[in-house]
Amino acid sequence: MSVHLLDRLGLRGALDTDALTAGTKTFVPVHVGTRDVPIGTVLDVLDQEPGLLPPRTGHLGNWQDIVAGRSGPMDFNTAVCGGGYGYPMVYGFTRTEADTPGGDEAYQPGSVIDRGRRQVLPLFTWDGTAFVRRDRSEPLFCPLVQTEVDGQLVPLAELQWRRMLAVPGYRFVQWAAVITDNGPLVTDMLTLLIEQARTRERNQALVELIGHAVRLDGRVDRSDLRADGDGFVLDGFRYPSARALAEATMLTVRALVRPREFFDRMPDLPPVLPVMSLQLTNVLFGLLDTHHPDTGVGTPEHPFITHLHWGARAMAGCPPRRSGYLTRRSMVRSLRAITDPLVRHFDVVNPTAFVLLPAQVFMLCPPSTAGADAERLAGLFRAVSGAAPEDAHATTLTWLDEHRDDLSAYLRSRFRSWAGVPADGDVREPSVPVEPEGFRSLTFRQACAAVAAFEEVLG
User: Which residues, in sequence order, are CB contacts of 23 under 8 Å at separation 6+?
Assistant: First the structure.
């Protein structure tokens, strides 16, 4: 299955399949945005391959205008998930938007946004004896936050999840539910990794597993985890063993799935909880078979797992100008350091080929409400297709110099630096993304370079 799929995608030569098959490399990523693979080839494979549906890891928060195709820069989610090329896997380890940096300004989970209008929610966290209202002076860890509805405290994650489930036509999946559904396996994996990290000389070994520490009042800091005899100390609190630390790490995951149970236990919880790292999360995406959402973990793919994943601005970026975090050398070293012992110790774990699909190429698909944009962009695509692959960025810059003002204001606004779901009060008509003529013939490398040029000029 793995080699067959890579052959269909035209990516077999981009990965060290011999090393993956032999297990000498346990994690090998390939960024499709750096490859001359036509967009249409990938979309056709996703249409035709039984059971294959890559996750698009969006965040907890406001999806209503995303689904309606009026979310500006977030419309790439609409194209992927609404178009049937992926499904929204909702990642909840984010923080509320705040007056200081660090919160999720894209999905704004601490607010309700619908039809461009934003209602700021009251936020409550634990002060040691009760839930008290907090200001927005700093971001707060979403799983530990409550809000108020009709005079009653409601978990923030539950409120946003209910809103998402009310959206017709979308199959939202909680990342946290995938983890808890495989809770015993994940806990065993994490226990092993923590025990082995204790003996490794690299100071980063533990931090690569437990990335942050969160206080019960929702404040998050980078992990300062260190070994202490048979136990571990996190932000001054001692966990007596690797398993105790692993089990505590699962608490914040379960807080997203069963939040009321979590909040009922607040008085008995440790004062500081470990938060699973981004590195471990990315490894688990592949190992837990999230690219086959209807089957889950079963018989592992042989000789290695081929995991397809739609990444956006942080994970995938737009190569070559901005390539995202997943394929950085330091990140790949961390991912292999996690995957190596798991492959050796668990029968259900095989090496992983991580195929990163950049979702931002769909920013080049204008909304159906701005019909003239499709014709204009078709002209750009003809110019890009007629140039050498390495000239796509320069060709787009030249085209934008002449045509940028011909594009709709809505399309231009998509490329503002790191903008999120619009909350300016404007009521926009619902729309669906339109693929201009020539879009599917572009390679991912060409499309990423074009998006990078749009961001450079319009951001």
Answer: 343, 351
Please list the residues that pair with 146 across neighbouring strands.
124, 155
Phi-psi region of 130 (alpha: psi -120 to 50; beta: other; left: phi over 0): beta
φ, ψ of residue 146 to 5 degrees: the values are -115, 160
Answer for the pair 306, 353: CB distance below 8 angstroms, yes or no: yes
As a whole-number percent, the residues of the chain with pLDDT over 90 amount to: 90
Q: Report the alpha-carbon distance of residue 162 to residue 312 in Å, rounded.
A: 24
What is the dihedral sign for C-alpha 382, 386, 389, 395?
Answer: negative
Regarding predicted confidence, which is higher, 94 or 202? Answer: 94
Closest by Cα among 5, 171, 24 to 90: 171
**How far apart, in Å, are the Cα atoms of 131 and each of 98, 143, 144, 274?**
19, 14, 10, 21
Whether residue 298 has pLDDT greater than 70: no
Tokens (6 digits) for 149? 């509805």
The mean predicted confidence, pLDDT, of the chain is 95
Angstrom distance (rounded) from CA 288 to CA 284: 6
* 447 CB neighbour count, 10 Å cutoff: 25
Q: Tell me the pLDDT tens digit for each residue of 77-111.
A: 999 999 999 999 999 999 999 999 999 999 999 99
One-character DSSP codes across 95-138: B---SSTTS-TTT-TTEEEETTEEEEPPEEEE-SSSEEEE-SSS
CA distance 328 to 30: 11
Q: Please give the average per-residue pLDDT across 49-63, as a whole number.
A: 95
Q: Secondary structure of 10-32 in the HEC alphabet? A: CCHHHCCHHHHHHCCCCEEEEEH
pLDDT the model gives residue 202: 63
Contact at 8 Å (CB) between 398 and 449? no
Q: pLDDT of 223-268, one tens digit each?
A: 999 999 999 999 999 999 999 999 999 999 999 999 999 999 999 9
Q: Tokens at residue 202, please?
A: 């690299």
Domain boundaries, the chain: 196-276
Q: Collect all residues with Cβ–Cβ distance below 8 Å to 102 and sequence separation of at least 6.
A: 95, 138, 139
DSSP-derived letter for residue 241 is S
User: Residue 186, SS3?
Assistant: helix
Cα–Cα distance measured from residue 69 to residue 253, given in angstroms and rounded to the nearest whole number: 30
Q: What is the DSSP letter of 80?
A: I
